From TrEMBL:
One of the GO biological process terms: beta-ketoadipate pathway
A Pfam family recorded for this sequence: MIase
Molecular function as annotated in GO: muconolactone delta-isomerase activity
Signal peptide boundaries: none
Enzyme Commission no: 5.3.3.4
Family matches, as InterPro entries: Dimeric_a/b-barrel (IPR011008), MLI_dom (IPR026029), Muconolactone_d_Isoase (IPR003464)
UniProt protein name: Muconolactone Delta-isomerase
Uppermost EC category: isomerase
Gene transcribed to yield this protein: catC
Family: Belongs to the muconolactone Delta-isomerase family.
Subunit text: Homodecamer.
Pathway(s) it belongs to: Aromatic compound metabolism; beta-ketoadipate pathway; 5-oxo-4,5-dihydro-2-furylacetate from catechol: step 3/3
Amino acid sequence: MLFHVRMNVRIPHDLPSEETAEIIAREKAYSQELQRSGKWRHIWRIAGEYANYSVLDVNDNAELHEILSGLPLFKFMDIEVTPLLRHPSAIRDDDT
Ligand SMILES: O=C(O)C[C@H]1C=CC(=O)O1
């Protein structure tokens, strides 16, 4: 199942910089591992915002929730999820 996910990040300004850097490093490793596994298909920075648009390919809603709630930055994020399905006019074979 494909989901479009918008993640808006708001890290409190008073969080110590070492802690912020450590969380961001863990976030990067977590997301890159999921990208390598094929679960996290796309990640795009939204220009001018500390936010991203991502496409995740997961088995079900429960797996999506597990992945999103496991994000090291989860507690500093607002997340919007949109379920996707193949468009009847799509011509690419690899976008199901
Ligand atoms: O920077 C972001 O958009 C937040 C986050 C999501 C994946 C990742 O590596 O960082």
